[in-house]
Amino acid sequence: MSGLSSKHLLGIKSLIPEDIELIFQTADNFKEVINRPIKKVPSLRDLTIANLFFENSTRTKLSFELAEKRLSADVINFSASASSVKKGETLIDTVNNILAMKVDMVVMRHPNPGAPIFLSKHIDASIVNAGDGAHEHPTQALLDAYSIREEFGIVKGKNIVIVGDILHSRVALSNIFCLQKLGAKVTVCGPPTLIPKYIESLGIEVEYRLDSALAKADIVMMLRIQLERQGKEGNQVNYFPTLREYHQQYGLTMERLDRLNHTPIIMHPGPINRGVEISSSVADSSTSIILNQVENGVAIRMAVLYLLAS
Predict the structure, then answer these.
(1) What is the CB neighbour count within 10 angstroms for residue 256?
(2) For residues 169 and 136, what is the distance between their CA atoms, to the nearest angstrom?
């Protein structure tokens, strides 16, 4: 297989396992590039990529921008908060105006689920979904699975527990799709109020007690409580009584890990709420690969952009 099966990366659900393996093999090469003294290659020298972020982002936006510059692409950064979107301009008008500047590829984050899919049906440029609402975040899932592969050599057969706000998490959904395609066994864990009712139909296990979930985990992926998607920012009455109680029930601490007869690998897509879903001692421990995920994010995004461009 010489290229991806689609001209867009809209979600993990639309990828085939061969696509994922090709992205991983390409990322292996780019990881070597970003760890050498001269961290730049001319692969996308003739391309212009527009980063359209209709939602706030720090890590993902910086990671994409760094990946684009490492590939020598010309980069346009667009922020909805400082654009004509505030004046009522539609999504298609915004993008068409940018494409009129001869942009070849669009990396887009949007608060509405399905926005990248909608856009892909109306414009010719390749679209990379950098997160759409609570729907999908495909490059995050790819870098997570790549980090697991790097740690264990294989993803197939591994027991992976995803803990936290599953209901509002696009990372959780993309990871479920990705890890299943690679043959891993996935369990989700969290308060019943933060586990969507449809989740078992995806063929995964649900566990409501963290200690029980940890007992069988090779990898533990912690998710933050997404206040910004819960309707009443800062008010958790509808989901659990207090953040303190959430931490007592579902926070990952050294005390919890010390009770296990094995040591699972700890992951987190960020940003981390220390003292809520994870303690500082765990986040900064030798069993945590959180910073590896950040580094791998650049290599994976370089691979995705390169493959879509070719």
Answers:
(1) 16
(2) 8
* Encoded tokens for 35: 């760890």
Summarize pLDDT for 69-106 with one digit per residue, the tens.
999 999 999 877 655 555 567 878 877 887 788 899 99
Separation of first and last alpha carbons in the chain: 13
Task: Characterize the bridge pairing of strands 105-110 and 48-53.
Answer: parallel
- Residue 84 phi, psi dihedral angles, 5° rounding: -70, -10
Tell me: the pLDDT tens digits for 203-222?
999 999 999 999 999 999 99
Show the tokens assigned to 36. 């050498």
Sign (positive/negative) of CA torsion 161, 11, 227, 198?
Answer: negative
Calculate the alpha carbon distances from 190 to 176, 276, 283 in Å.
15, 13, 19
Residue with tokens 């963290």: 210
Identify the residue whose tokens are 């809209």. Answer: 10
DSSP result, 169-229: -HHHHHHHHHHHHTT-EEEEES-GGGS-TTGGGGT-EEES-HHHHHTT-SEEEE----GGG
Task: Please give the Cα distance from 232 to 58 (Å, whole number).
Answer: 23
**What DSSP character marks residue 258?**
H
| Two tokens, residue 251 | 């926070």
* Pair 145, 173: CB distance under 8 Å: no
Angle at 271 between CA 267 and CA 273, to 5 degrees: 90
Residues 6 or more apart whose CB falls under 8 angstroms from that of 234 comprise 227
| Closest C-alpha to 186, from 178, 173, 176 | 176
Q: Counting Cβ atoms within 10 Å, is residue 103 exposed (0-12), middle (13-18) or buried (19+)?
A: buried
- Of 255, 268, 60, nearest to 162 by C-alpha is 268
